[in-house]
Design a protein that fits this description.
2 domains; alpha+beta; 145 residues
Length: 145
C-alpha cells in the first residue's frame, strides 16, 4: 500500500508540473492584444513617393540679419500626389517661404521648433493638394545663419 501511495503522489506531482509547464508555454507564446507588441521588430519603414525641393534661403521673423538655408524632401502618399505637387511649385514655394519666415531663429534652434515647422508645412501643403497628402517632411539641409 505504501508503494501505491507513493506512486499516486509522484503521478500527482508530475501532472501538476506538466499543467504548470503547459500554462507557462501558453501564456508566453499566445498573441498579444496590444498592437504595439505585434509589430515585427525588424521590419523597416517604407517610403512613399518623394519630392525633393530646391535650396531656399529664407529670412526669419526676428531679424533681417538671420536667415535659414533650407532644403526638404516631401514624402507623399502616392505618385499622383507627387505629380500634382510638381505642377503646383509656386504654391509650394510660397507656403515654404511664408510658413518658415514666420519663425524666429530662437524657436528653430529647438527640436520642438523644427517639429512644429514640419507640422505647419505638412498642414499648409495638404491644404492645396487634391490627389493625396503629405505624409512627412524631412530636412535635407537646415542651416541657421
Amino acid at each position: 500500500m505504501k508503494k501505491n501511495g507513493r506512486l499516486i503522489i509522484i503521478i500527482g506531482v508530475l501532472v501538476v508540473v506538466l499543467i504548470a509547464a503547459g500554462g507557462t508555454v501558453y501564456f508566453l507564446t499566445r498573441p498579444s492584444n496590444d498592437p504595439a507588441q505585434n509589430i515585427a521588430v525588424n521590419t523597416p519603414p517604407t517610403m512613399g513617393a518623394v519630392y525633393e525641393s530646391d535650396e531656399y534661403t529664407i529670412n526669419l521673423a526676428d531679424s533681417t540679419k538671420r536667415y535659414l538655408r533650407l532644403r526638404v524632401a516631401v514624402e507623399l502618399t502616392s505618385d499622383k500626389a507627387r505629380a500634382e505637387l510638381e505642377t503646383k511649385i509656386p504654391m509650394f514655394e510660397d507656403t515654404l517661404i511664408s510658413t518658415t519666415s514666420s519663425k524666429t531663429a530662437e524657436v528653430l534652434n529647438t527640436l520642438e521648433g523644427k517639429e512644429d515647422l514640419k507640422n505647419n508645412l505638412i498642414s499648409a501643403i495638404n491644404y492645396f493638394l487634391g490627389e493625396g497628402q503629405v505624409k512627412n517632411i524631412f530636412f535635407k539641409e537646415f542651416l541657421l545663419s
